[in-house]
């Protein structure tokens, strides 16, 4: 059996950027139009077409839902031009992370994709996940989902050599996070609230320019896997626990092979081996600029990362149209 690095060598890193660029460009025509479904559908169709041009035997393990819930890029769908012949690749994707953001022309909408060797990305069900993430440079075990937000902020502050009121947390702006936000502000911690896009929120912890130290709160489990693929490439720590609202969601998790429903996942349990992560901005954000159109030229900004080499490439593309 080939190593993960050898398998992924066959799928060029820049090909992943071409896939996210295609999705971002397709969605960009619907920025600010108020139609979330249309924007998502455009991104999905473009990403699927681009994936099917690649020489690989790909399987979507994180996608737009199950076969009966999504017409394209559903969990378990096969993509690539070489089924049964090309390298076996697992794919986690979100063709448009931030559908509401796109519809309202808000910041931080992305087209996102991660790939790894077969079996290296957790096939996470489409449920919520409690998430806790920090960037590189902290001692192992600095964050713990079984501890309170106050205790985690204190541990992060101690590791940084600062006071808790100098720590900044990123949290999705949702009613379910009211108590979390109140607790963080109660200890003087700064809170950056984002309307959507928690993949970008997690990645923000790795960039000192954002000033964000930690990501906290619950969001989609599939997005947690995507974020972990990025953290694997640039460093950081992640803890995640699946959250279930009813028996149907528990049954869905068991269907996808998850037996321990209370398990706390580490970074390497969500994304392991050699990972490639790519993202292209749809709208302007803290991570990437959005798609711009100037006459007959569209410009894109993307980032692509690889865990085996630790490389991060920033790619600016010009695409002539018409």
UniProtKB/TrEMBL annotation:
UniProt keyword terms in alphabetical order: Carbohydrate metabolism, Hydrolase, Manganese, Metal-binding
One BP annotation, GO: fructose 1,6-bisphosphate metabolic process
Keyword Cell inner membrane: no
Gene Ontology MF terms: fructose 1,6-bisphosphate 1-phosphatase activity; metal ion binding
CDD domains per record: FBPase_glpX (cd01516)
UniProt xrefs under Pfam families: FBPase_glpX
Residues that coordinate or bind Mn(2+) 1: 40, 64
GO cellular component entries: cytosol
UniProt xrefs under InterPro entries: FBPase_class-2/SBPase (IPR004464)
Cofactor: Mn(2+)
Superkingdom of origin: Bacteria
Protein family membership: Belongs to the FBPase class 2 family.
Name of the featured protein: Fructose-1,6-bisphosphatase
Native organism: Sphingomonas baiyangensis
Taxonomic lineage of the native organism: Bacteria, Pseudomonadati, Pseudomonadota, Alphaproteobacteria, Sphingomonadales
